[in-house]
Input
Amino acid sequence: MLQKEKKPPVTHVYRLLSRVFVATSRKFTVIGKITFFKHVDNGIKHVVFRFFSYQKMADMLTEVSQAFNTLCVKYPRLKSILERCYSEIRNSELQVKESADESQAQKKQKVRKVLEESIDMRPLNTTFDSLLTETVKTEDELIAVLKRLTEAQAQDKKKILSFAARQGLLLKGAKERFNATMYKHVRNSCDFSSSYANFLISLYRLFERYPRLNYCCVALRFFCGNMKLIQQICNENQVFWTNLSSLN
Output
């Protein structure tokens, strides 16, 4: 004689669903809103929850799916409810991803507009221009020039990027020529953190490849905060950013 399927204890199912959520949500730094709903279906109370995450979950969907499959096997009468729960989690991840992609595209467009509108190809001479070609032979000379370039950035905002890129070139040479202790001494003497020094080197490499960037009149922090996007923008329109002959 077939035994009648037992009704799963509501509190037990609720606890299991909560564990599924906890197991998946604890891996995110930002957690969205959780809403639990109870309703009656054929005399059995079920627990359904909506999970809204504001970070990517693509790498977690497999684990979540396995957790729901386990619950479906253990409580087959809840299968349709559990499937809807998993479907909502999966769909929310897709929506978050689409929203993030759209936001990133908008930000890139804004960065591109700022760069292009700030270009000024007119010659500009300053009292610090000699620093752009001055050579250094010793560690002390290098430190002195790096400090003067920092001073130049504070005095002449229109050429701040060129002076920063020059620092990047000098730091790159120092990193290749000096040992780790000497290079660290150079950085510390100029109050450059390791990450900032690496940023300056990356800035130099980017300007060397795309020289038109030297004529963008924007703050250095604009590049610092949008470096990856600027690289993408230049890669997508290499002819424009490498060409100095005209503004077309």
